Amino acid sequence: MNLNKITVDIRNRSKWEAMDLGIILIRKFYRPIYIAWLVVTFPIMIALCVIFQGYSWIPILILWWLKPFFDRFPLYFSSRIFFGETPRFKQAIKQLPGFVFNNLLFDLTILRFSPWRSLLMPAKRLEGLKFKQRTKRIAVLSKTVRGWAALLTVVCLVFEVGLFLSWYFFLYILFMTSIIVPADIFRQTEFWKYCLQVFLYYLSLSIIEPFYVAGGFALYINRRIFLEGWDIELVFRHMKSRLSLVKEEEQVTRK
Question: DSSP string spanning 68-95?
Fold first, then answer.
């Protein structure tokens, strides 16, 4: 890890600033993050629509359940971009399988309902520690930020549900007819309505989830900056480089 390559200003931020940093990171580097997201998630959404025709609640439930799997893709690109790397396509193909599928079943079952999942995921995926070491590490990292990670989960869930319902009301107002009604979510005979319901949820999920991942990643990074003193280390590195320059100038003047 080279601190000099980090793409943002390293300093100890408040929790609100840290989460906002994650949002800025997605806004600034949205292209590779959302391309990776769409390449993986969109075919899964299409496959679920084809398999479970007529019952839109099943694809919606599966998409929601697979969030820990989907989240690993924006986390991979966010972490690389944060540390000054822009993963190439071939490099990403080689690294992603191990990054994505390691301990995936554990995240989809035991930790699926963890309210601070966005904070735990970077610690598990990026540090490569064994179970006992990882447990101790997570306890230290999450000591003062678990409540903030839970708040991030609640806020993003509210935005996701709000977006999903907004599409419903928008279509109803636009067409002034019951194209989609809540009862249809359990059984829909018209294929286009059924696909539209699934797509509306997928659209809401795709808009919010990368920001959720980046917010948790930024909380994790901010906590590491505080615990490990990255900002102090950078100051000493700059001082060392300045001293070396001064010594070089003195040697040149003596000659």
Answer: HHHHHHHHHHHHHHHTT----HHHHHHH
